[in-house]
Amino acid sequence: MKTKVCIIGMGPSGLMAANTLKELGISFTVIDKNPIPGKKLLLTGGGRCNVTNNLSKREFMESLTVNKRFLYSTLSAFSTIEIINFFKSKGVELQLDKDFKYFPKTNRSKDILDALLVDIREDLLLNETVYSVKKNGLFQIKTTNQSIEADYVIVATGSASYPKTGSDGFGLKIAKSFGINTIPFYPAETSVYSSFVKENRESLQGVSIKNSIIRIKDTKKSFTGDIGFTHFGVSGPGIQHLSEEIYHNLNTHNVITVSLTELKETDIIDLFDEAKDTGKSILRVLEQCTINRVAKFIVEHFRIENTKVKATSKKTINKLIEYLLRFEVSIDKVEAKENAFVNGGGIDTLELNPKSFESKKVTGLFFIGETVDVHGPIGGFNITIATSMGHQSASEINNQINKKQKH
């Protein structure tokens, strides 16, 4: 079998590349090992599919964790507006949720997948596992049932997150076979495990704190966001965002501090000072600072006598303020990369042309989506990145074809 472009992987990046090639009139084949396309896409956003968000390009890139400038060209060419218009052209309207995230109006991820598939179904090869990709003039792709020859190859196989969906990191094996440098996948945007929380789960499980200031103790790594204590540790958007930094620092810094209140230190001090005149107890002031369960836990866990504030030493009050603002939680491990919402790592961005995602070492070989070492937090970032890279890589192939035809 021969085709102009072979796309390996049917996630949002691969499918967007296919749609762009279709529009440009370039022949292509998309291969996936699964019996159905877009298996992982169907799970995103709790089945609703958070497609993109309403951040400006600058705000979007500043929110990324690694290689922020690498995506400048592609996000300038294809981002939120273009994504919204693409799905609208396929009959799917996106709506803004909570002034930040865009979801399909139907709240069904299947509608997003159907929009990506509607024009390209005849070009899909399902239930085909790729075993090798080689190049001898043309690319030779060996799969379960056939050999494919192609002028160009786009690798869009995803990371190692949720391997049951077919996302097993195979793209890194392809890269290594060509001598392209890769960074091992690691967990990002996920929860953390803590034996301390587990031991105190009867008091802490189900407790949520809004706008907690989370720090990796004795480092400059911090983030502010909502957290929640679970039966095994700590989760929530704030923890998820900082989880990859926790992962990287775990061997030397395995303690995080979290604020258990939204109040500033000066506000807490004022409440304790006022309590001296009103005769309030320690527990009553703590309940003014945080939720009742947390206030009670602090008193019981640290064995603080619930006396009136005016009868409490300044040293004890200072300790209580410290517990509220910098409550220490020891971390045992970060959730495995296979269960993380997002993975860091992938193809080293230094190996790719940032304007096309073509390998600098192998002409005609492109890597896009989660296969590459670029990712953002939860909130429409990663589907935006994936679709943008898919569009850009296909557009570059079109440019190369046109240049060859002119010569």
Based on secondary structure, the structural category is alpha+beta
Q: Output the CATH class name of the largest domain.
A: Alpha Beta
| Rg for CA atoms | 25 Å
| Helix percentage | 25-40%
CATH architecture of the largest domain: 3-Layer(bba) Sandwich
Tally of individual domains:
2
Element layout with pairings:
Layout lengths: L1 E7 L3 H13 L3 E4 L20 E2 L3 H7 L8 H6 L2 H10 L4 E4 L3 E4 L4 H9 L6 E2 L4 E7 L1 E6 L3 E9 L14 H8 L4 E7 L3 E2 L1 H5 L1 H4 L3 E9 L5 E8 L3 E3 L1 H13 L5 E4 L6 H14 L3 H8 L2 H10 L12 H12 L1 E4 L2 E2 L7 E6 L17 E3 L13 H26 L1
Parallel strand pairs: 1-2, 1-9, 2-6, 9-19
Antiparallel strand pairs: 3-5, 4-5, 7-8, 8-9, 10-18, 11-14, 11-17, 12-13, 12-15, 13-14, 15-16
Short description:
The chain has 407 residues and is of the alpha+beta class.
Characterise this structure.
The chain folds into two domains: 2-187 and 343-406, FAD/NAD(P)-binding domain (3-Layer(bba) Sandwich), CATH 3.50.50.60; 191-334, no CATH class. It is built from 14 helices and 19 strands. The chain has helices at 12-24, 57-63, 72-77, 80-89, 109-117, 170-177, 195-199, 201-204, 237-249, 265-278, 282-289, 292-301, 314-325, 381-406, and strands at 2-8, 28-31, 52-53, 94-97, 101-104, 124-125, 130-136, 138-143, 147-155, 182-188, 192-193, 208-216, 222-229, 233-235, 255-258, 327-330, 333-334, 342-347, 365-367. Helix 1 (12-24) packs parallel to helix 14 (381-406), helix 10 packs antiparallel against helix 11 and helix 11 (282-289) packs across helix 12. The radius of gyration is 25 Å and the shape is elongated.
